[in-house]
Design a protein that fits this description.
14 strands, 5-stranded mixed beta sheet, single chain, binds zinc ion, 320 residues, 7-stranded mixed beta sheet, Metallo-beta-lactamase, Chain A
Length: 320
């Protein structure tokens, strides 16, 4: 016989099933974005599914937004409106991928200046622009966010580095190079001891292949090199904000070092397997993660990444 307590649980479970069913049957809703405080007036919007994060910085002179995904930018804008009455003055892009660079249109009411790099500009004009138009016209439920929107191209397209003095802060943009995308940009704000790393940093989740309109740009060798450059700066930073995954406030450079170790482990293991004559399928099946990375989310991303990396090692030669 069911105890009262158990009966109550069964009842609640039944209700939950009823509540969930209609939600999943509809066209997929945008992932929930959770507002997290990183430092005074610096906030990250964490994507609850592990997809792209965004961030914003509030100053007396207005707001700077970091990254905009067309599917989640409305939630970021709503969070900004809840947090401050200041307008969005700047939107800056970490890279040109769809999940980071398609949502600028949602800020149009505030007429922000959009900051990117020349290479990002080119990507947005070319393959990203074509994909945006395709999705806008597709009529598919998963592309609904594109239907009435426009792709906004950067107003300022820099190369190398750019310093923006804004609201009493120094915003140091660095085009780190090409490791995850064709042009990976970071933003360091010394007064806040914060470093927005874009997709060069993924926390508790496997890194992505750097997809841009069906082509994969992630390059492990370059990625390790760019992380080395960031580590070598020894910046006085409390928090490196990831492009995917939760922010570890106060963990500092340990997050960047963990990302670097991840790729070193992958490099060494996959090189060994290649030297032993393993096929890509064997590498995908036999590659085992050290305990440090075992809790990372989205294992499917690892499997795809191994395929990409396997062929990179053949193209570039095995590492020592
Ligand atoms: Zn991303």
């Amino acid at each position: 016989m069911l105890s009262d307590r158990l009966r109550r649980w069964v009842f609640i479970a039944g209700l939950t099933a009823v509540w969930i069913a209609p939600a999943t049957a509809q066209t997929s809703p945008a992932p929930r974005m959770e507002q997290r405080k990183i430092a005074d007036n610096v906030f990250m919007m964490e994507n609850s599914t592990g997809s792209s994060n965004a961030a914003f910085v509030v100053t007396d002179d207005g707001v700077l937004v970091w990254d905009a995904d067309i599917r989640t930018a409305p939630q970021v804008l709503a969070a900004i409106r809840r947090t401050t009455d200041k307008k969005v003055r700047y939107v800056a892009l970490s890279h040109a991928a769809g999940d980071h660079a398609t949502g600028v249109w949602h800020y149009r009411e505030d007429k922000p200046i959009v900051i990117g790099t020349r290479k990002q500009l080119r990507d947005l004009y070319m393959q990203e622009g074509a994909q945006f138009s395709e999705r806008k016209a597709s009529g598919k439920p998963e592309d609904a966010a594109y239907a009435n929107a426009e792709l906004v191209i950067p107003d300022i397209a820099f190369e190398g580095s750019l310093t923006l003095r804004f609201g009493g802060l120094t915003m140091q943009f660095t085009e780190e190079g090409s490791a995850h995308s064709t042009s990976d940009v970071t933003l360091y704000i010394p007064q806040k001891r914060v470093f927005l790393a874009g997709d060069l940093l993924n926390t508790e989740i496997h890194p992505g292949q750097g997809e841009s309109a069906g082509v994969f740009y992630s390059n492990v060798k370059n990625w390790v090199g760019l992380l080395d450059n960031i580590i070598a700066r020894r910046l006085p930073v409390d928090t490196y904000v990831p492009g995917h995954g939760p922010a570890h406030v106060g963990r500092g450079i340990a997050d960047i070092e963990e990302q670097r170790r991840y790729f070193i482990v992958m490099r060494d293991e996959v090189s060994k397997m290649l030297a032993a004559g393993k096929s890509v399928q064997q590498v995908q099946a036999e590659f085992t993660l050290p305990a440090e990375f075992a809790h990372y989310k989205r294992p499917a991303r690892l499997k795809n990444f191994l395929n990409l990396f396997y062929h990179q090692l053949i193209e570039q030669g095995f590492w020592p």
